[in-house]
Amino acid sequence: MIPNGTEYLSADPSGIAQAADLLRQGLLVAFPTETVYGLGGDARNGEAVASIYAAKGRPSFNPLIAHVASAEAARRFVQWSGQAEKLADAFWPGPLSLVLPLRDGHGVSSLVTAGLDTLAVRVPAHPMARALLEAVDGPVAAPSANPSGRISPTTAEHVREGLDGRIAAILDDGPCGVGLESTIVGLAGEPALLRPGGVVLEDIEAVLGTELHHHKSGDLLTAPGQLQSHYAPDASVRLNAQSRQGDEVLLGFGPVECDENLSAEGNLIEAAANLFAALHKLDGSGRPIAVTPIPENGLGAAINDRLRRAAAPRDS
Ligand code: TXA
Ligand code: MG
Predict the structure, then answer these.
(1) Which residue of 5, 66, 72, 164 is most buried, as measured by CB atoms within 10 A?
(2) 230 alpha carbon to ligand 2 midpoint, in Å?
(3) What would be the CATH architecture of the domain defined by 7-214?
């Protein structure tokens, strides 16, 4: 698919300049953000966006997040509001995406929004992501850089395993700090939590001074892309396990005997950062995965959301 294979770029000014160049040519570049690695393409170039869907094998009804360098840049594409301003002031740059009505003359490909009249925008905090977005000076559509439905990548090696040969380049800057995707807040109508993630619900509600509408864990589809079975390892996943059954490998949290521990100290921030790498690693054992209980407070809500999706029945 890519004539010269996938290029590996280092996280320095020359790597960033090359990555920006490839994006301007309409090619795809995976890059680090503080949440997970993103698979970037020029959001204004329909062919580039179509090739994101193709590289991931992603269902076309699933809209993408537009990444920009600043809140000012975001305002070129969406209808800004007082609530957006409050959340941007408090959490940008950082692991929060805001869904807002599109603005006239936005220029974003309708493949990014999957035909919706809203756009998800995010200003990532990772220094490489920021440098890249500043160099490109335009919106970069970027889903997580994994084949659709599979575990999200928190290292360049995870990206290579899933997408090598299918994209132009990977910008490598080591593991991601947060380890879970951004929290998505819908602000096109009543403020709503569309996906739990790296910024906890309670902090968002404190800034807005109001409660967010949200579905209780494991409920309905919320954001259009929230397919039930998602983040799926090859192995089956069993939640709330007290111990191993049969052939299982055990993923633990807190002071438990297990094969891989998300955080022996029971720290949810550390657990979030380790989650996807631990799933990748245990999946490599070829055995079913059992997971000990994880509390639902703070980042636990987003961790459990991803684990429930990893455990959900598969389509085929
Ligand atoms: O942390 C993140 O958000 C990462 C990094 C790369 O920034 N990106 C990411 O993108 O997780 P992705 O494509 O894997 O997830 C995007 C989610 C999907 O669930 C999609 O349905 C939702 O955002 N979304 C995008 N645009 C939307 C819109 N206009 N309305 C509602 N949901 C939207
Ligand atoms: Mg994803």
Answers:
(1) 66
(2) 8
(3) Alpha-Beta Complex (3.90)
Please tell me the number of the ligand nearest to residue 223's CA. Answer: 1
Mutate to test the pocket of ligand 1, among 97, 159, 176 (most ligand atoms within 8 A of CB): 97
Nearest ligand to the C-alpha atom of residue 231: 2
**Atom in ligand 1 nearest the alpha carbon of residue 152:** 14
Q: DSSP states of 141-162 as a string? A: E--BSSSTTBPPPSSHHHHHHH
pLDDT digits (tens, 9 = 90+) for 191-231: 999 999 999 999 999 999 999 998 654 444 455 555 566 67
Q: Is the CB of 178 under 6 A from ligand 1?
A: no
Q: What is the position in ligand 1's atom list of the atom closest to the CA of 38?
A: 6
pTM of the model: 0.90
Q: Would you say the CB of residue 222 lies under 6 angstroms from ligand 1?
A: no
Q: What is the largest distance, in Å, between two alpha-carbon atoms of the chain?
A: 58
Q: Is 33 in the pocket of ligand 1 (CB under 6 A)?
A: yes
The pLDDT score that the predictor gives to residue 291 is 98
Task: Provide the pLDDT for residue 186.
Answer: 97
Per-domain residue ranges of the chain = 7-214, 237-311
Q: Please give the C-alpha separations between residue 138 and each of 73, 114, 225, 304, in angstroms, as whole numbers.
A: 8, 19, 24, 34
Please name which ligand lies nearest the alpha carbon of 41. 1
Q: How confident is the model at residue 61 (pLDDT cuts 50, 70, 90)?
A: low
> What does residue 47 show for φ and ψ, rounded to 5 degrees?
-70, -40
Residue range 237-311, CATH number: 3.40.50.11030
pLDDT at position 128 over 50: yes
